[in-house]
Write a structure and sequence with these properties.
Number of strands: 2
Distance between the termini: 9 Å
Radius of gyration: 11 Å
Order of helices and strands: HEEH
Largest sheet: 2 strands, antiparallel
Number of domains: 1
């Protein structure tokens, strides 16, 4: 099981998707995602997130 920091690092390295680890805000095992972008970018991001989840 990955820590939130390890999860964020692996997601960035494998899927080029950046998230903020929840421990930065006092919430371990969580992540913060910015959705201030286009719907197309969000769709791409969530597809990458799904790919990452399926491989872990």
């Amino acid at each position: 099981k990955l820590s939130d920091m390890e999860f964020a690092k692996a997601l960035l390295e494998k899927e080029y998707l950046g998230v903020v680890p929840g421990s930065s805000f006092g919430k371990e095992h969580c992540m913060r995602i910015s959705y201030a972008t286009s719907l197309k970018n969000l769709e791409t991001a969530f597809n990458r997130l799904e790919t990452f989840f399926k491989s872990h």
